[in-house]
Amino acid sequence: MGRQIEHQRQNEIKACDDKRARNMRLIAEVEAANKIALSKKAELRQKELDEEQKIVRYNQDKIEREVSQALEERHIKEEKEKEVARLREMQEKAADRQSEIDALRAKRAFEEGERQCRTKEVAEKARMNRQAGELEVARRRQFNEREHTLAAQAKAERDDFLRIIDRQKEDEQKERELEQERQHQLRNHANVVRA
User: Fold this and answer.
1) What is the tens place of the pLDDT at every residue in 152-172?
2) Residue 22 and residue 170: Cα distance in Å, rounded?
3) Relative orientation angle of helices 2-115 and 121-194, to the nearest 10 degrees
4) Alpha-carbon gap, residue 51 to 110, rounded angstroms
5) pLDDT tens-digit readout, 2-17
6) How far apart are alpha carbons 160 and 81 in whole angstroms?
7) Mean pLDDT, to the nearest integer, of 56-71?
8) Is 109 exposed, middle or buried (0-12, 13-18, 19+ CB in 10 A)?
9) Which of 26, 100, 116, 183 supports an S-S bond with 120, CB 3.0-4.6 Å?
10) CA-based nearest residue to 56, from 66, 44, 67, 48
11) Residue 86, H or E segment
């Protein structure tokens, strides 16, 4: 009877030890599974952070490029405006000098005519009329040349402006296409990650 009780007690102890061992194995398996899940979750989060960093860097680079391009275009425009102003100033000075020369010639011609004898008055009048005609032709030619130069400058500036607008439109279209492609890739990546 005593041996049977002892044998039963030993069996109960062994059953408790087996149960404890199974529980320990289950706990170890659960902890291992949790570690794997946490590792995968951390890896996925790191990938998401990397993607976000790439997007941030891309946007920063894009902004820097746009600012740099705007500054360069502004610098070019200012230089063109300075050059146009310089040319106009030179033309105005040249026109002023020509007007002074014309006035001086007319004055000298008039003084010369006053000094001529009365007998040469008819011939002097004819010379004065001829000079006035030549002066008018010269003035008209100078005016036409100036108008032609200003028209050519205006056309060149307009053409430059239109080229800049066309290039900006092309750049904006390329940026939109790149943005659409990036959004497409992000959606594909998100779908892959979710899958």
Assistant:
1) 888 888 888 888 888 888 888
2) 70
3) 180
4) 88
5) 677 777 777 777 777 7
6) 12
7) 87
8) middle
9) 116
10) 48
11) helix 2-115
